[in-house]
Amino acid sequence: MIKFEGVHKWFKKLHVLNGIDLHVKQGEVVVVCGPSGSGKSTLIRTINQLEPIEEGSLIVDGMDLRSKKTDINRLRAEVGFVFQQFNLYPHLSVIDNITLAPIKIRKTSKKEAQEQAMELLERVGLAVKRDAYPTQLSGGQQQRVAIARALAMKPRIMLFDEPTSALDPEMIGEVLAVMQDLASTGMTMVCVTHEMGFAREVSDRVVFMDHGVILEEAQPEEFFRNPQHDRAKQFLKQLLSPMH
Amino acid sequence: MLKYTFDWSIVTSGKYFEWLVSGLKVTLELSAVGIVCAFILGLLIAVLKMSHYRPVRWIATAYLEFFRNTPLLVQIFFWYFGSYKVLPAAVNEWLNSTNFEFAAAAIALTIYTSAFIAEDIRSGILSIPKEQMEAARSAGFSYLRSMQYIILPQAVRITIPPLVNQFLNLAKNSSLAMSIGVMELTYQARQVESYTFKGFEAFTAATVVYLGLSVVITALMDLYNKKVLNPHRA
Questions:
Q1: Which CATH number fits the domain that encloses residue B201?
Q2: Contact (Cβ atoms closer than 8 angstroms) between residue A93 and residue A132
Q3: Nearest C-alpha neighbor of A127 from the set A144, A102, A111, A105
Q4: What is the DSSP secondary structure assignment for residue A38, as one 8-state letter?
Q5: Looking at the domain assignment, is residue B145 inside a domain?
Q6: What value does the mean pLDDT take over residues B113-137?
Q7: What pTM value is reported for the model?
Q8: Are residues B166 and B117 in contact, defined by beta-carbon separation less than 8 angstroms?
Q9: Average pLDDT taken over every residue of chain B
Q10: Res B132: pLDDT
Q11: Chain B within 8 Å of A143 (Cβ-Cβ)?
Q12: Where is this gene product found (chain B) (predicted)?
């Protein structure tokens, strides 16, 4: 579904992705973790070409991201992206946030798009907020709307870039629950997150990155019980007991 | 001792009153056409100025600098006295059959004001966080569609106060159209003065009407901003 082969990327002189090889199969839930500045956000952003890559090959849903023939807008319509800062459209109500892309890009009728949006809002537990505006919602609610907005395009892949990092602790659970529910439907998901509980319970595989390199790739049980790399051991130790 | 006797009746009734009313009608038409066209053109230029293609940006920049930095009166004269010299005869014939004075004034006002509006809208666009564009592109919208559905609607809201200024300027600048014989409000006030020597009354009347027009434009924009653009904000 997603295949990185020898992918490199630079920001000016900074080598942010240094030879990434990664294969995500259909229906797989992959968690990417690592210290800040490790390149994990950049990695996930290359998948829908918010960041273009400079070397290597990247195939997403059968489309070659380095080919000039690939219609990037078509690819992006198939790939849902959830941001750390939600990025809802502040001038549109919740329902309009969700229906805009299906109506304008998928050419779904307004009535049908609204019905689908209501189903999605039910699913994320926010049906009562259909006419609210983003500024009237809490962070957790905004993020759940953002997930519903991404799902409204019926994507084949969902990408989450630190979806709970901007949230107050008591709101993290509600967003993770939605993600867990989504994973149980067989959605292909790549999540950059520090939520190790989510990684352990929901993911099929954990990828650990540092300095633009994938240092470790393992089943969650294996990764948490017996991390191989020193950097991974250190990272886990700090994450589990940040006071030391 | 003041020798002048005021006669306000000339501007509140009768023939001269009708002149002023017909002048106001032309001023309203000119302002309305100018505001709508200048806004659309300004929006277009603002987007072009932000294009990824350098030649397109250059054209937009040249347009902006050229029309912002030359006097409006010269531009009005150019369209009225200059442009038709280089147009084909058939076009000229058609132009003469229409109200060419009005058209020349409308074109000059539109283009002149659009340059200022474009700059205001552009700074509005730049104030929208770049993540909004990323969210739109991630959903599969092209650059232009992202602008259309997500960036511009937000930018225009921010741009309302400076836009009101530009609209007011346009309405007031429309008085320059009298210089090429457009029979708008200032032209008619001048006529009333010529016929009656009641310059004080005539131009007081014109002043009051322009003031009223500005107040109405400001109120309408305010209402639009509150009721249509930001219904959810207090």
A1: 1.10.3720.10
A2: yes
A3: A144
A4: S
A5: yes
A6: 95
A7: 0.82
A8: yes
A9: 91
A10: 97
A11: no
A12: Cell inner membrane; Cell membrane
Contact between A223 and A206 (Cβ < 8 Å): yes
Residue B4 included in any domain: no
Closest approach of chain B CAs to the CA of A99, in angstroms? 11
Q: How many domains in chain B?
A: 1
Say whether A76 and B138 touch across the interface (CB within 8 A). Answer: yes
Would the CB atoms of A77 and B157 count as touching at under 8 Å? no
Tell me the nearest-neighbour CA distance from A122 into chain B, angstroms.
21
Tokens, residue B145: 């569609």
Determine the Cα angle at A147 with ends A167 and A144, to 5°.
45
Rounded to the nearest angstrom, the minimum Cα separation between A155 and chain B is 10
With respect to residue B93, please indicate whether it lies within any of the assigned structural domains.
Answer: yes
B3 falls within a domain: no
Amino acid letter, residue A190: V
Identify how many contiguous H helices and E strands chain B contains and give both numbers.
11, 0
Chain B residues with CB-CB distance to A78 below 8 A: 140
- Measure CA of the first residue to CA of the last residue in chain B; give whole Å: 55
Domain that holds residue B91: 9-229
Q: Give every CB contact of residue B27 below 8 A, 6+ residues apart in sequence.
A: B171, B174, B175, B184, B185, B186, B209, B213
